[in-house]
Amino acid sequence: MRSTQIQVQDHPSGVVGPEHFRQVEVDLPDPGPGQVLVRNTWTSVDPGLRLRLRRHAPAGYFTAFPLGQPMDGILTVGEVVASRAEGFAEGDTVWHSFGWRSHAIVDATADAMNGVGTLRVLDTRDTPPQWYLGPLGAMGLTAYSGLAVANALDGGERVWVSAAAGAVGALATQIAVQLGHRVIASAGTAAKVAWLREVGVEAAVDYRTEPIGEALARVAPDGIDVYFDNVGGDHLEAALDAMRMFGRVAMCGSVSDYESTPSGPSNLFLVTAKHLTLSGFRGSLHFDLLEEMQAKVGGWLREGKIHYQESVYDGLDQAPAALADMLAGLTVGKTLVRL
Ligand SMILES: NC(=O)c1ccc[n+]([C@@H]2O[C@H](COP(=O)([O-])OP(=O)(O)OC[C@H]3O[C@@H](n4cnc5c(N)ncnc54)[C@H](OP(=O)(O)O)[C@@H]3O)[C@@H](O)[C@H]2O)c1
Questions:
Q1: Which residues neighbour 157 within 8 Å (Cβ) at sequence distance 6 or greater?
Q2: I need a surface site. Which of 84, 156, 171, 256 has the fewest CB within 10 A?
Q3: What dihedral do alpha carbons 168, 61, 131, 15 form, nearest 10°?
């Protein structure tokens, strides 16, 4: 059995591009006892991959990708082609963590990515399989658990979500709306802002046409209670300025500095002055919330209360370009590669 896979050829020092990767064919063995062979059909493209393309990934995070090796730890959906593992049969749709390749041998009992990447049969009777890489998978879990760690599942407050038309942001925004918050959303194009205005937010702003701090002061002059931070840098600084007393920040990511030198907020004393809580979190470490999230978000999706967008790239060879486009802000919703 031959499998096509993407490998890292070179660590990017600035903006990532297809030149940092290569596509190779490798031999796959037959599945052994307890293993399944999966033909991958959808694979995920995430900003966190850029952190793992550094020589050393941030401490505590998923590990850096070694050069010239398969890229393990990327969420993926596929179909079981052959199984020697109990509970998995030919034809099952599954998720696992061996993405950016056409086929994978997966050990059915091996825990992967804190659970979100452990081999699992998916119910696709009423659900498109790729939703399990988006709203019903790690993206939904990240959005939902971020609001949970910020103690914001009860509604009734003003919440700002940045990168709000992206995979996590679009879900955090709409979940917050469904929970009864007044939501401010920010994104980087007029089209994204227009889309956000249609999903029930109080205001949507374009950080590329107006300094984000000024935009926040204009649309939320009374301040914000909760900030769901996907961006870091100047956005986090603006949030600290805009925060009300006892505000909370869910620190989901800082995509503005994944490809450049980070610049921290210059106003950190406001955390003390306003008695703020800044909570870093990893969606994958809140696996216990998966079923609760799937029930709520799945219901809102089917009722048409949450809208899901995706940017689909066809063919494994397009995965590096998809990553570069996503980091440049050229994609909307969840960025995926269809194999
Ligand atoms: N904590 C966790 O467990 C966890 C899990 C998944 C993802 N994350 C984090 O969540 C964030 C969003 O991830 P995602 O998968 O949903 O990606 P995404 O939002 O679909 O794509 C990234 C987006 O970031 C925006 N962006 C890029 N550079 C920016 C800059 N300098 N300033 C402001 N915005 C910028 C772009 O949108 P614009 O057009 O709006 O600029 C881009 O589309 C990332 O920080 C990621 O690392 C965290």
A1: 181, 182, 225, 226
A2: 156
A3: 70
pLDDT given for residue 262 in this prediction: 80
Judge whether residue 251 has pLDDT over 90: yes
**Average per-residue pLDDT in the chain?**
97
Single pTM value for the model: 0.98
Token pair for 159: 């919440």
How many angstroms is it from 217 CA to the middle of ligand 1?
23
The residue contributing the CA closest to ligand 1 atom 28 is 256
Domains of the chain: 2-133+309-338 (3.90.180.10), 138-284 (3.40.50.720)
> Beta strands 243-251 and 224-229: pairing type?
parallel
User: Environment class of residue 122 by beta-carbon count within 10 Å: exposed (0-12), middle (13-18) or buried (19+)?
Assistant: middle
DSSP for residue 299: H
User: 95 pLDDT exceeds 90?
Assistant: yes
For residue 261, the model assigns a pLDDT of 84
- Nearest-atom number in ligand 1 for the CA of 145 is 3
Q: Which helix (H) or strand (E) holds 249?
A: strand 243-251
Strands (E) across 157-235 are located at 158-161, 182-187, 203-206, 224-229
298 lines ligand 1 (CB under 6 A): no
